[in-house]
Structure formats: C-alpha cells, structure tokens
Amino acid sequence: MSIIEKVHKSAPVDLDQLETDVAAAFPLPKTPSYRLQPMPDYVAHQEGVPRVGALSAEAVVRDYETAAKEIEAMGAELISAAKKCEEMTTQVHGAFAYMQDTAKAYREEAKRIFQRIEECSKLTQEVHKICETLKHRIEGNSTHQEHQSETKCRAGFEVARC
Questions:
Q1: How far apart are CA 35 and CA 58, in angstroms?
Q2: What does R_g of the chain's alpha carbons equal in angstroms?
Q3: Closest by Cα among 45, 40, 43 to 72
Q4: Distances, alpha carbon 132 to alpha carbons 68, 137, 141, in Å
C-alpha cells in the first residue's frame, strides 16, 4: 500500500482544528496599528492632498516619529550611562587617593626603616670601635704586666710571684 492510499483511508482531517493548531504553534507577530497612534502635532494635512498621498505621508511621519522616540530613549540611556561613568570616576578618584596615601605610607615606612638600619649600623660600628679599644688596652696591659713581671724576676724582686 502506498502512502497516498494510507492518507486517503485515514480519518478525515478537521481543517478548522488544523488551522487553530498551526496558529497556536506559530503565532503571528503583532504589528503596531498606526491608526491608533495620533499624528504628531508638528505636521498637518494640507487641503487637496489625495487620500493615498495623505496616508503615505502619515505612515512616513509616524515611522520617523517612532525612530525619533527611540533616539530620545537612547539619549536617556546615554545620560544614565554618563551618570554611571561619573559615579565610577568619583570612585576612581577615591581609589587613586587611597593608592596615593598608601604609597606615601610605604615611603614613610621605608624612610623609618632606612634610618633605623643606619642608626643600628652606626651603633654597631661604635660598639666595634669600643671593643677594639678595650682589646688593645687589655693587650697593652697584659703585655705591660708581663714585661713588668719579667723585669722583676730578672732583677730578683718578688721571685715568688714568677
């Protein structure tokens, strides 16, 4: 049996129901009705214009008016974006000021640490000099004492200490 024979033998199709099903599955986009929109107040029909010309002029002016309203809406969006930019600029200035303060604090801390290291270095150098001086004095005294005790021992004085 062919496909065509199967279609003919199947139940009859309700065309009204089919149209309803198709319309529900694929809804037609609604086009705006220009007749419901009033004509802009900056235009008026002239006397003696044929109906076709008047309708064409109305359609064109309404299209232009719709575009003008969309442009105005874009302008409002642009103003909103500009306000957001101003807010961001304010925030950026605040963040920049914070960064400047942080950099200043880092420099001050670096200066403090630098000075502290140099002070410690000077103190270490001074301690080193004092230690060297004391070392030389100790060495000088012990050499002097050794020399005195050798001299005394040779001269025969205080032999018990030698």
A1: 9
A2: 53
A3: 40
A4: 93, 9, 14
Q: Which amino acid is at 100?
A: Q
Which of helix, strand or coil describes residue 45? coil
Structure token digits, residue 85: 């930019």
Both tokens assigned to 95: 């963040």
Q: So where are the chain's domains?
A: 14-161
Report yes or no: 40 and 65 within 8 Å, Cβ to Cβ: yes
**For residue 10, what is the DSSP state?**
S
End-to-end, the C-alpha distance of the chain in Å comes to 144
Per-residue model confidence as pLDDT tens digits over 128-155: 999 999 999 998 877 666 655 555 545 5
Using the structure block, give the residue that is written with the tokens 């232009």.
64
Q: Where are the alpha helices (DSSP H) in the chain?
A: 3-9, 15-25, 51-155
Summarize pLDDT for 25-84 with one digit per residue, the tens.
887 766 555 455 778 889 998 999 998 998 899 989 999 999 999 999 999 999 999 999
pLDDT digits (tens, 9 = 90+) for 32-46: 554 557 788 899 989
Instruction: Give me the torsion for CA of 61, 63, 67, 70, rounded to 10°.
Output: 110
